[in-house]
Amino acid sequence: xxxxxxxxxxxxxxxxxxxxxxxxxxxxxxxxxxxxxxxxxxxxxxxxxxxxxxxxxxxxxxxxxxxxxxxxxxxxxxxxxxxxxxxxxxxxxxxxxxx
Length: 99
What we know:
4 helices, mainly alpha, 2 strands, two-stranded antiparallel ribbon
């Protein structure tokens, strides 16, 4: 049984060993499982990758007159705005496109 000691401000326990509900679990219960490693994201595409895509998109748009930028963007799974940005890389000076 536990009794409150008026002067000390804590409980006195008159049973030994301690009741199980007052005992802390063994240290093994405190061990955490190791976290799985975070997946490494793929590196972002570089300018040459975007230029290569731009030439492919331009070739597909010229080969099929009925194909629009919007349809092509949906097929590729990108935004129409992103499609415009990629195709705008073709307006760069050829000297810059080599880099």
